[in-house]
Design brief:
Structural class: mainly beta
Largest sheet: 2 strands, antiparallel
Helix content: under 10%
Number of strands: 2
Radius of gyration: 29 Å
Number of helices: 0
Order of helices and strands: EE
Strand content: 5-15%
Oligomer: single chain
Length: 83
């Protein structure tokens, strides 16, 4: 059977289970100054309680730099104008 090479741009991953270690944090909320308890898998202590936590909004896309345009240069003796 003949073989051929193809370039794969997309791939799928088989479903699997992960074990995520969570930790219970006791802290004082930065906004409402109330003692609170929150479970998180993050390594840093959370700053806000569930009610004061700012919503995650999508960041505005950064504008892409435009590519430089080709420029036409004219030499002193006139060459390069309509060649």
């Amino acid at each position: 059977m003949p073989s051929k090479q193809i370039q794969v741009r997309e791939y799928t991953v088989r479903a699997h289970k992960r074990l995520i270690h969570t930790r219970t944090y006791k802290f004082i909320c930065k906004q409402c100054n109330q003692p609170t308890v929150r479970e998180s898998y993050a390594t840093l202590r959370p700053l806000y309680c569930e009610f004061c936590r700012p919503s995650k909004s999508k960041a505005a896309p950064t504008p892409q730099k435009k590519k430089p345009r080709a420029m036409k240069y004219v030499s002193d003796n006139g060459k390069g104008q309509g060649e």
